[in-house]
Design a protein that fits this description.
It contains 14 helices and 11 strands. By secondary structure, the chain is an alpha/beta fold.
Length: 327
């Protein structure tokens, strides 16, 4: 049984990654229903949170059915991170996660996210301060290093464990790689093989099929796998992986009806949570993923990504189901 403090996650948990503009409550609701064992919110700016920025505050919305749920923060200032962590603790998440993996320029080049991979002593100092500031478990998500010359994740993992984090997720790329090339899991395996490591180690990067999940579980010995991009438009992936890992069988792929229903539910919750205008606009990035490989989808997509009429959008989704068979 994999545990983060007292939180039981099963024998080999499949986690939903924190993804900006993706892993919000509407998407998480679908992933939870389809088997995600632990989910994280979109990452929250510590600076935005302590200044009571509306978007940062809204990202803390969590629901009882989502548990166990982690809230993720990022930042570069120790005092701001501690203050933000204490604010987050008041909404009662199960876990607080610190992001040391985001590679985007506006985050990393300001010394936050993956930017801390250039200053491991500061990363450790910041993490220790957060651990001491809250009573809930603190976890970390990071990368192998800043670039090929600084892949120091084995040592970094030890140092983070020593100051009190209770689980570590490692994305198998450097910051310099961004999301390009193939994720290198060998160093993730090396962290797990390190006899000093006692906390759960979760691997992340390029796991997009049940077969690959089983292969990497056996090859690298991680305690669980975190799924990011492969879940977008495909919340069924969690139960598919769990069934294959447990019984070696492939679940039937979702039908077109399943996909239309999921997209419609996602849209409804998006509108309910964000308001009609923003809910419609922010849903647009998901349609292509829900209907990938559908012949002639382009004809429908045009309306889905331009219309501001909720009734019209739902009519288009209904017509997709009526006119096509998913292939």
């Amino acid at each position: 049984m994999v545990k983060i403090r007292t939180i039981e996650l099963g024998e080999f948990p499949i986690l939903l990654a924190p993804m900006e503009d993706v892993s919000d409550p509407p998407f998480r609701a679908l992933c939870k229903r389809h088997g995600a064992d632990l989910m994280y919110t979109e990452f929250i700016s510590s600076e935005g949170l302590i200044r009571d920025a509306a978007k940062s505050v809204q990202k803390m919305d969590i629901f009882e059915y989502e548990r166990p749920i982690g809230v993720q923060i990022f930042g570069s200032d120790v005092e701001s991170m501690v203050h933000a962590a204490q604010i987050i603790e008041k909404v009662n998440p199960d876990i607080l996660d610190i992001n040391y993996g985001c590679p985007v320029k506006k985050v990393a080049c300001k010394g936050a996210g993956a930017g801390l991979l250039q200053d491991i002593p500061k990363m450790v100092k910041l993490t220790e301060a957060v651990v001491k500031a809250v009573n809930i478990p603190v976890t970390v998500k990071t990368r192998l290093g800043w670039d090929d010359q600084t892949k120091n994740i084995v040592e970094t993992a030890e140092r983070l464990q020593d100051i009190g984090i209770e689980a570590l997720t490692i994305h198998g790329r450097t910051r310099k790689q961004m999301y390009k090339g193939e994720a290198d899991w060998t160093l993730i395996g090396a962290v797990k093989d390190n006899q000093r490591m006692k906390i759960p180690i979760f691997g992340n990067g390029d796991i997009d099929t049940p077969e690959k999940a089983l292969l990497y579980k056996n090859r690298y010995g991680v305690d669980g796998i975190m799924i990011g991009r492969a879940s977008i438009g495909n919340p069924w992936i969690f139960n598919e992986m769990k069934a294959f890992l447990k019984e070696g069988k492939r679940l039937e792929r979702p039908t077109l009806k399943d996909r239309v229903e999921a997209a419609t539910e996602h849209l409804d919750f998006s509108v309910q949570w964000k308001g009609e205008r923003l809910g419609i606009v922010e849903m647009r990035r998901h349609y292509t993923n829900y209907f990938r490989a559908l012949p002639h989808f382009k004809e429908y997509r045009q309306t889905l990504v331009t219309s501001m009429d909720l009734t019209e959008i739902k009519q288009v989704l209904t017509s997709i189901q009526e006119e096509y068979t998913f292939v």
